[in-house]
Amino acid sequence: MTFNQPLQNNGSINISTEQVQSIISNIVEPKKDSWKRNLDIALTIAGAECLFIQAYSMVMTSSSDRTAPNPAVTIQSRVLPVEAVDSYQVSRTYTGKIAAARNSNLGFSRGGQIESVLVKEGVRVTKGQTLAKLDTQNLATQRQQLIAQKAGAQARSAELESGARPEDIDAAQAAIADLE
Q1: Which of 30, 40, 59, 168 is the Cys-Cys partner for 11 at CB 3.0 to 4.6 Å?
Q2: 10 - beta bridge partners?
Q3: Separation between Cα atoms, residue 95 and residue 90, nearest integer Å
């Protein structure tokens, strides 16, 4: 709805009876789509407020300047199309701390670095299923050291069981003779 009626010198607005009835019917008449009705009401009220503010400002300027005649003023308004939408998107930002609903304390017989994880997060597992593999390189090194120590201990044991060699006996007797 547009109002292209000129203002009179006293600042009044001329609106026809049909225009008033149209405004009232838009406000009072129930409609099927309530959001359209509310939009019509809001636009009608906003248009009326704009007309009132424009008329008030003209009356105030004309009352302060009585010498100059007030020319006829045409208030122009434009109608904007309104389109209905099916959905809309709202973006929200929250702050907080994310915590697991359940924690499981796990214990391992050996420590080390994980070489590979065999299951994905959130997947159900069964009892006894291998979940991850540890890096066994350091364990292999420790095994080789233990094998070498075992071989040395077996050699000493065999030497003690067979008795001392004649060279070792001669060396020990020489050391005793030096002390005397």
Answers
A1: 59
A2: none
A3: 17
DSSP string for 76-110: ---PPP----S--------------S-------SS
pLDDT in tens, 93-119: 889 888 878 877 877 777 778 888 899
> Are the beta carbons of 125 and 131 closer than 8 angstroms?
yes
Residues 6+ apart with CB under 8 A from 117: 131, 132
The label of the residue with tokens 């005397």 reads 180
The β-bridge partners of 132 are 117
pTM of the entire predicted model: 0.29
Lowest mean pLDDT among 11-15, 47-51, 105-109, 151-155: 11-15
List residues bridging with 134 in a β-sheet. Answer: 114
User: Cα 50 to the chain's mean position, in Å?
Assistant: 42
Please give the Cα distance from 132 to 135 (Å, whole number). Answer: 10
- Asked if residues 26 and 18 have their Cβ atoms less than 8 Å apart, the reply is no
Instruction: Please give the structure tokens belonging to residue 65.
Output: 């300047």
* Buried b / exposed e along 33-51 (16+ C-beta atoms within 10 A): eeeeeeebeeebeebeeeb
